[in-house]
Structures are given as structure tokens and as C-alpha cells.
Amino acid sequence: MEFNTAKYNEITEKIEQCVNEYEKMNFDSSRQTLYLANGDIINIKVTKNNIPHLLGVNLDYLAQSNMFKSDADAYTRLKYFLDNSYRFSRLVIDQKKLDFDLMFSDYIDEKVESFINNIKIRTDDIQFVIKYDGEKTYQLENIPDICDYYIIRKINQDYYVLGLTRYENTTNFNPVTSRKYSNEEDFEKFVSRIAKKQEITYPYVMKVVNDGTCYKKDFYIRMSEKPSFIGKLIRNAKKYDATPAVVRDFSYTLSNLNDSRSEKENVLSVLRLLADNVKSGNVMGSEIYNDVCGEFEIPDEVLELINICNDNICNGFEADNTSYTQLHDERNALKQELKSLREELTASNSEVERLTTENAELKEQNNNYNEQMNILDEAYQKIKEIKK
């Protein structure tokens, strides 16, 4: 393909802007820790040597130019490429040593556009997090970008995907893929491929620390925000045939409710049951937690969580904003009434059976009487004939 100088300059300029932003924000000294609702903790650190891959620059191919120092690391090579982008372009145009189409990723535009948003992780725009386990599904395609976790976010109408891989069997994770999807169909195809049969969850706490700027900040999901997160999680779990995992967040909610040990144990039992119901896609009626708690009064926060989960599982109840728990109680009352009616019907059937048996006995007695009357009538007729 003919070398497109304008496109090449546009790409290199955007890459340089991303690198400058990365250095300006001192991201090399920053780490983000996500406490996921499924109980996992992931520490994310965007190191300098991650940057070329995240930006879609093919350094292995560019190394064929023999312009890099042999001992230079990935980030140093990227900076050298940007500083000498014109010289590299001449290798394509004049010397034909490099192919423009192989210098960058096929998704270079999406990677560059998503870079800043993906390294500045926020909790308020996260849709869900996919924990990928290759043993849970069989991939028919040869996919090079399989990661341990995928953070899915939505900003305005665009979807952003950040893929993470574990670093040497620790809780530290490196970002290895960064994507932006402006097309809904392409995004759906991507998520459908990686989310099926996998756990999906969300971060209920995020801690950000920057040693270079001494910045520290904790971000929590407030109770008022839980309906949105849980609702999205359950809907997406159904949509992509995935498993919602939230038990750790429920336990975290419990730790902030009450210091009484017995009350904690009761509420923890309820939350575990709720988590199991969410995971299996079943609703949780009042008779379930009443059996666990007895006379113990469940905190309003937990009841709210139960209603949130039930209402989102039963999408049919969302239109009139009716609590599923209330409807479930009404249904139980109707079931009890039906049970009573069935018992009355059984009793009525027994009475009918008794009367039927008694009627049969009376019929048999009547037949016997008729036979006797016939015999007497025959005898009477004979007596009449004899008298004649």
C-alpha cells in the first residue's frame, strides 16, 4: 500500500500527545487498587514499558531498522521513534526497508483514542469487570489478546476496554490491551466472545496512590449507587450468559452496619443467601430470610439490597417500580389460601364419597325389598287361583 504521509504524521503526533500526558500526570509512580465485589483484589500499575504496546506501536518490527540501541528498553525505543519519526518514514518511502502497515496495530486509532481514558480509571463509569478463566469456555478463534481481567467502561456513547494480565503470580496486574468501541455492534461482538460463562463483577472500592505527587484517594460506591451497579450487573449477566459475583461487597456492607456479633452473623447469613440467589438468578422471598433470622430485625440497608437484586432479576416488575418482596409475600398468601381451598375440597370429596357409598347400600336394600315383594306377589296370585 502507498505510504500515507498525512496519516503517518497524524498517528505519531497523537502517540506523542499521549506520552506527554502520561509523563505530565506522573503515571509511572501511580498505582490503582480495585477491590472487586467477587472478593478479588487487583493492583494496577501502568509502567513505562507498557506504553508502546498500549499505544499500538510495533517495536519488534521497527527494530528491523537497526536504529535502536540493543540495550534500550521499550519506552526508550518508543521515545527514540517519536523523536526520529521523519527518519523512520524515509525508511518506508526511500529505502523500502519498512512497511507502513506493519509499524502500528490494526487498531491503532482506537488504542490512541482510548489511552488516556483507560489509564485514568474511574468507578462511576464502570459497567462491569470480567474475570476471564480459559477453562470455563472453549474458544474457536485464535485470539491473541486474552487477559485475566477486562475493565469495561462507558463514557458518553463510547465503550472502553482495558485488559489486564497478572504479573508473576502476584496481585499486581499490567494493562496489556486498550480499546475503544464507538460501534455498538462491534462492542457486543467483543464482549459476547469473552464474557460467556465467566464471572462478571464490579469494584466497590478503589484506592489511588501516587508516590511521586503524594496523592492518595479512596473511592467508595455509596448505597444510593448500588441499584445502578447491581442492576447493570444482573442485566449484563443475563445478556452475555455470565455469572454475577457480588458476595464480597455484600460482606463489606455488613461490616458497616452493626458491631453486634450475633446481628452480624444473622445478616451475614442473609447476605450469603442473597449472593447465592443473585449468582443463580433466583429471587429471594421474605420466607427465606425470615427462616434464618427469626425475630431478628434485618437492617434497612440489607432489605434495600434484597429489593434491588429482586427487582433487577425480575425485569417484569421494573415498569411499575413495585418491590418484588412485596409481590412475593402476596403470592405466598395466595398460595396459603389455595392450600386451604384444596383441603376443603378434599374434605368435600370425602363427604361425597361417603354419601355415594351410603346411596349404593340403600339401592341394594331397595332391590332386596323389591325381590321380596315380587315373591309375595307371586304367592298371592297363586292363592287367588286356588280359591277360584
How are the strands ordered across the major sheet? 9-8-1-2-6-5-4-3-7-10
* CA radius of gyration: 37 Å
- Please tell me what the overall shape is: elongated
Helices, by number, come to: 14
Tell me about this structure:
The chain is built from 14 helices and ten strands. With 388 residues, it is an alpha+beta fold. It has two domains: 215 residues, no CATH class; 77 residues, no CATH class. The longest helix has 64 residues.
Can you give me a brief rundown of this structure?
The chain is of the alpha+beta class. It has helices spanning 5-24, 51-54, 59-62, 74-83, 85-93, 100-103, 108-119, 184-195, 226-240, 247-255, 261-280, 286-293, 300-313, 324-387, and strands at 30-36, 41-44, 126-131, 149-155, 158-166, 172-181, 199-201, 203-210, 215-220, 243-244.
